[in-house]
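Batch 3, record 17
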Amino acid sequence: MHGSEFTFPVNVRYMEVDAQGVVFNAWYLTYFDDAMTAFLLAGGLPYHTMLDAGFDVQLVRSEIDYKAGVRWQDPILITVSCSHTGRTSFTLDFEVRRGPEVDAEVCTLGRTVYVVISTDGSGKREIPPILHAALGADPEPG
Amino acid sequence: MHGSEFTFPVNVRYMEVDAQGVVFNAWYLTYFDDAMTAFLLAGGLPYHTMLDAGFDVQLVRSEIDYKAGVRWQDPILITVSCSHTGRTSFTLDFEVRRGPEVDAEVCTLGRTVYVVISTDGSGKREIPPILHAALGADPEPG
Amino acid sequence: MHGSEFTFPVNVRYMEVDAQGVVFNAWYLTYFDDAMTAFLLAGGLPYHTMLDAGFDVQLVRSEIDYKAGVRWQDPILITVSCSHTGRTSFTLDFEVRRGPEVDAEVCTLGRTVYVVISTDGSGKREIPPILHAALGADPEPG
Amino acid sequence: MHGSEFTFPVNVRYMEVDAQGVVFNAWYLTYFDDAMTAFLLAGGLPYHTMLDAGFDVQLVRSEIDYKAGVRWQDPILITVSCSHTGRTSFTLDFEVRRGPEVDAEVCTLGRTVYVVISTDGSGKREIPPILHAALGADPEPG
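Prediction for the assembled complex:
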């Protein structure tokens, strides 16, 4: 299980910056998707292990708050944490900071909600213990 | 001023579809950005007119709810409406439907919040009457 | 069979324009991919018909010459034509023009080479007559 | 000046993989753009130094040969080298390999041609010595 603080570095590409000179809004969802995979991996759950175990996660909601623009070559770090787990869903929170300093500016906040589904097509299922562990949450009793 | 219902067609590109066969989540923000510009244009406000009048709009928040996946070559239509105007900000609501029928499946819901800023760098400003009109809202009195 | 001149309109998105104010180079390959599908469709060959007939096309080479930058909201039209067919491969030529006029500026030239493959995994195969027809080339004798 | 072999690692994003399970062709140009910047930086020329010195580079031609598909999470490395310098232009060659081994499979080959332009709008100019040095080529005599 990873600690309470997981940080994911982002290489901002030149092509992600728009005519206003800042990263276009849609790219943050791309960053969050990458950061989610890395977060689960750091928690001991590679994506293929999840599939091999018969489940997958599906995005059902995204929220982004844009505080300050990010520019090309800014040294971006994204902190990921799990802020909620339900029976079949969980929520990740993302903080996009310019630089590694503890007091570095927070440029963007994100939140994504996922449901766990079976890979056999039978729909939603409860969060498996290995996913609970990877999220840094306590496994469901029983 | 456009009517209460504005609809924007989207040509889903092959490259927007991911390994799961559905449009990757980030592309919806790209669709919404395009749809916003078209919505204001249909309301009588081309983007360059906005800039010429000394103001611009800046995205401060996005929300997306994913209901059903969109596939390549699906005939997607996005309905845009202004659900709120404040003193310096406004909110647009987006409904992504598969097909033109009134009862076509709603695949995705979006909401974006913008603030109006001066192009002279002086920061936020009140919504100008031409923008109020384009949004389909009543112009501010006075 | 479509005529010798097939034209595909492109809606340049705001997010495709980079910090220099022109469409970033990679997006042209996205335009060409869309234009290829539309070209075959106009020639009587929808993509799903191709798959149903047991073959697919695979990109093996791309070339782009950048002549002039394309800007957001430029009324872009792409002319597509088949410049070569071999036994198992064919070549498409693309001309990106700013506007519908015959003498409109050519901003970008592209060329893509595809091989035809069987969908059963057996590799390359000869160009089927329905693809030859869609490309505007004479079907192979015999 | 960097040595004759410069290698740039790429983090393939999930969203870059298309419905066929391999990286969509356009993303390679994005990788090459990033790799070019890193190549010049490794050669002692940060992008901002180039601009500060009054010149910029402009892409005029791209070529890509696709040999084998790249998949999500493949450990991709791109080798960059300068294969030609002219008076006002230069050519970079890219080899995309799956893995760091010397005999790792070459998945994609790329070639891009740039011209050097003045940032004052006066057009093409000769390759400056600091760019020649960064490219690993001998500076022009005189």
